[in-house]
């Protein structure tokens, strides 16, 4: 299954669960933060299955968030890439720091 098909299934699930009708972007970003924290804990604990689950859960929350904002994850990713594709910077302590 490709990403577009999975994204559509996530949105169908979110619609069936009433998330798209009863949630809002602020509540959804809170859910993303919750999943981010769980993923951080999984990384610290080197729990590969929970890392995979956490990344997947974050993707689900981001897909729903984008829909609640009348966007798609693809257009958001494209906009971000357009900004970073020519960005200059350097690696500092394992992180890329832009100029």
Notes on the structure:
By secondary structure, this protein is mainly alpha-helical. The protein has one domain: Orthogonal Bundle (Helix Hairpins). It is built from five helices and two strands, in the order αααααββ. It has helices at residues 3-16, 19-22, 25-44, 48-68, 73-84; strands at 89-92, 95-98. A two-stranded antiparallel ribbon has the order 1-2. Helix 1 (3-16) crosses helix 4 (48-68) and helix 3 (25-44) runs antiparallel to helix 4. It is globular and about 45 Å long. The mean pLDDT is 97.
Features of the shown structure:
99 residues; mainly alpha; Helix Hairpins; two-stranded antiparallel sheet; 2 strands; 72% helix
Number of helices: 5
Tell how many strands the DSSP assignment holds: 2
Query: What is the domain total for the residues?
Result: 1
Q: State the order of secondary-structure elements, H for helix, E for strand.
A: HHHHHEE
Helix content: over 70%
CATH class: Mainly Alpha
Q: Taking all residues together, what is the mean pLDDT?
A: 97
Query: What is the CATH topology classification name?
Result: Helix Hairpins
The backbone outline, from C-alpha atoms, is: globular
Please compute the radius of gyration using only Cα atoms.
16 Å
